[in-house]
Write a structure and sequence with these properties.
The chain is of the alpha/beta class. It has 3 domains: 89 residues, no CATH class; 108 residues, no CATH class; 121 residues, 2-Layer Sandwich (Nucleotidyltransferase, domain 5), CATH 3.30.420. The chain has 11 helices and 8 strands. A 5-stranded mixed β-sheet has the order 3-2-1-4-5.
Length: 350
Amino acid sequence: MFSAERVHCDDATVPVLAKSKTDTGRIWTYVRDDRPFDGGAPPAAVFYYSRDRAAAHPERHLAGYSGILQADAYSGYNRLYEEGRSPGPILEAACWAHARRKFFVLADIETSARRRASNKTPSPISPLALEAVRKIDVLFDIERAINSLDVTARKAARQERSVPVVAELEAWMRAERAAMSRHNDVAKAMNYMLKRWDAFTRFLDTFSRFSPVVDPRFSYRAEDVVGALERVCASIGYPKTIRVDLGSEFISRDLDLWAYAKGVTLDFSRPGKPTDNAFAEAFNSRVRAECMNAHWFMSLADAREKLEAWRRYYNEERPHGAIGNKPPISLLNPGDAASPLVCSLETGSI
């Protein structure tokens, strides 16, 4: 179950017989199901029971997991997304159904009509909430239409159809939210999404997972980063964007001048927000778990040989659930660097 690259999680209340009363417990459900896009892994579900909703429960359930977790915004998951987590990072993929529900409640015409028919005070209907539901439903319609397509076709459809819808939705929400009181219920529903926008847009992922270079050194200077990027770009072309963290080698004058000369935008992650560069963080965890922790490196030359062998395996043989259980090289178009590159450093011992 927890070998999957993506796991969906939710919890629900359950009545529990107690002495002279009924208590409320929790059922935690973890699901994987790749059948909609013809994934190779069998579907599976795991259920755990707990007496309460403490954060310790999902932390214990997912103690050995590293990958993508789709869940609601329950704060009990927050430590799972922290930088430096062992055995590796968990990337948050926010649930659009949970977000839609908040707007739907405020735009529930049927419930309001039933209350009016029963001579009860009808619930107020928010035009903005109704518009938010309409915009989100466009995305749901797109997903239903592409549900049976393979990973390449789905990604292409999302780039063509979903990306403009998501961009328009974000711009609309930010403009409307700026005119509202923070106590407004629609504003709260918008804040739920806008504060987690990276997690909500993770489904638009366009990465092939291809690793163009793993370059071990005893130390990394800015000119080393530029040299590695020049070698990579000579074979796959220059990207539009490179996502980097705030390490000294990435905020350097050398890299800034190189990026300016090549027309490349440097997209810096925010301080203390490792999920801004989530794919680099996830890749680092794979390098460490599958190679660095599996070998002794007797010299720098030995490290280069073993890491390069692993990189070729990772690119050419290793199946990735996020791209339909294909190896990354199957999705790489030579000379095409349209997707953003991600850069990061990982330390190890020789």
